Amino acid sequence: MKTLTLRGIDEELANRLEREAARERGSVNFVILSLLREKLGLSKPKFRKVHHDMDDLAGTWTEDEAREFDEIVREFSQVDKDLWA
């Protein structure tokens, strides 16, 4: 495996690489290699299957229906402190 040295990396680029590494939970080296592979067409395409089986349901609730649903399920997001004591 070859090792290369990059020169001329300014603060802005270094900061962006570091932020991207933190976002990806990886190293700056990993981010740079990923970007190079992607740009040079060496990375495998990310396959993402798109489903359309529930499209007819999307956006069919009125605001009142959505509000009513939120009120009904609100109790499910509350923690019973006696169970966790």
Distance between the termini: 54 Å
Number of helices: 3
Give the uncertain stretches in residue-range form: none
Beta strand %: under 5%
Order of helices and strands: HHH
Number of strands: 0
> What value does the average pLDDT take?
88
Class from secondary-structure proportions: mainly alpha
Share in helix: 40-55%
Oligomer: single chain
The major beta sheet can be summarized as:
none
Globally, the shape reads: elongated
Describe this structure in words.
- The model has no long low-confidence stretch (mean pLDDT 88).
- α1 packs across α2.
- The chain has a domain at 55-84.
- The radius of gyration is 23 Å and the shape is elongated.
- It is built from 3 helices and no strands.
- The N and C termini lie far apart (54 Å).
- By secondary structure, it is mostly helical.
- The longest helix is centred in the first third of the chain and has 14 residues, at 11-24.
Topology:
Blueprint: H1 11-24, H2 28-39, H3 63-73
Helix pairs in contact: 1-2
Please outline what is shown here:
This protein has 85 residues and is mainly α.
List its salient traits.
3 helices, mainly alpha, 85 residues
